[in-house]
């Protein structure tokens, strides 16, 4: 690559320096990817040639991104991808010489965030890393929002049950029961959900 092209790649590189695990059983291909990652300002954290090495490096080296081949001797790279992503979610990109629709679909179902066809140019690698990071960040944001919504709904259910107990035991209307819950929450310096759980547990104890 010419010096001018090198400058273009460096200027367009992602500002983050990522630890990248390469899962590739062809040594020369892995060396090429390592060189390209270094040009882009990233830090290759090792090259795994099979499933056992990949699992070990994944756990020990805590990569930010994984480049995963599909054909790894006896190891199915897509099944390995699914396994590693179930263990810890992170951006993962398939790098393969194969591009048939069945493999692409399997890759999508495995939860990867990109797919590159060999041979991979440095510019294509840079662009795919950018896309993978963006998709991963969006997925994480959505997952956080869904969890927050679920937590809010659970808190609401607990508070309604606790409020019903106050209304029954203390002969209060709904508004006053809610006010008493809030006051008690502030007095004890605990959240409404935690207080509601304690009230429900106490009621269940009395009813046992």
Question: Your description of this structure?
Answer:
There is one protein chain. The chain has helices at about 5-10, 25-40, 50-60, 75-85, 100-110, 120-170, 175-190, 190-205; strands spanning about 20-25, 45-50, 65-70, 70, 75, 90-95, 115. It has about 210 residues and is an alpha/beta fold. The strands form two sheets. The protein has a five-stranded parallel beta sheet, with helices on both faces. The chain has a two-stranded antiparallel sheet with strand order 4-5. A hairpin with a 2-residue loop joins β4 (about 70) and β5 (about 75). α4 (about 75-85) packs parallel to α5 (about 100-110). The protein is elongated and about 75 Å long. The termini are far apart. The model is unreliable at about 1-15 (pLDDT under 50).
Descriptors for this entry?
208 residues, alpha/beta, Rossmann fold, 2 domains, five-stranded parallel β-sheet, two-stranded antiparallel ribbon, 8 helices, 7 strands, elongated, disordered N terminus
Please tell me the CATH architecture of the largest domain by its name.
3-Layer(aba) Sandwich
Give, in spatial order, the strands making up the sheet with the most strands: 2-1-3-6-7
State the distance separating the first and last CA atoms. Answer: 77 Å
Determine the structural class based on helices, strands and strand pairing: alpha/beta
CATH superfamily of the largest domain: Response regulator
Kindly state the percentage of residues in helix: 55-70%
Mind describing the biggest β-sheet?
5 strands, parallel
Write down the overall mean pLDDT: 87
Order of helical and strand elements: HEHEHEEEHEHEHHH
Any idea what the radius of gyration is?
26 Å
CATH classification class of the largest domain: Alpha Beta
Number of domains: 2
> And the CATH topology of the largest domain?
Rossmann fold
Broad shape? elongated
Poorly predicted regions: 1-14
Question: Hey, roughly how much beta strand do the residues contain?
Answer: 5-15%
Number of strands: 7
Number of helices: 8
């Amino acid at each position: 690559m010419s010096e001018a092209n090198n400058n273009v790649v460096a200027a367009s590189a992602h500002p983050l320096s990522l630890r990248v695990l390469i899962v590739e059983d062809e040594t020369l291909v892995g060396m090429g990817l390592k060189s390209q990652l270094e040009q882009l300002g990233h830090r290759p954290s090792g090259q795994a040639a099979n499933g056992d090495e990949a699992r070990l490096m994944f756990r020990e080296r805590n990569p930010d991104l994984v480049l995963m081949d599909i054909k790894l001797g006896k190891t199915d790279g897509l099944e390995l991808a699914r396994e590693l992503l179930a263990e810890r979610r992170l951006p993962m990109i398939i790098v393969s010489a194969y591009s048939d629709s069945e493999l692409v679909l399997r890759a999508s179902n495995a939860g990867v965030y990109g797919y590159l066809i060999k041979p991979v140019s440095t510019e294509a690698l840079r662009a795919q890393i950018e896309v993978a990071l963006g998709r991963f960040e969006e997925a994480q944001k959505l997952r956080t929002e869904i969890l927050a919504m679920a937590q809010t709904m659970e808190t609401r259910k607990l508070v309604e049950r606790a409020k019903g107990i106050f209304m029954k035991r203390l002969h209060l209307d709904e508004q006053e029961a809610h006010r008493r819950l809030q006051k008690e929450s502030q007095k004890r310096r605990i959240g409404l959900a935690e207080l509601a759980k304690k009230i429900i547990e106490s009621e269940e104890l009395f009813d046992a």
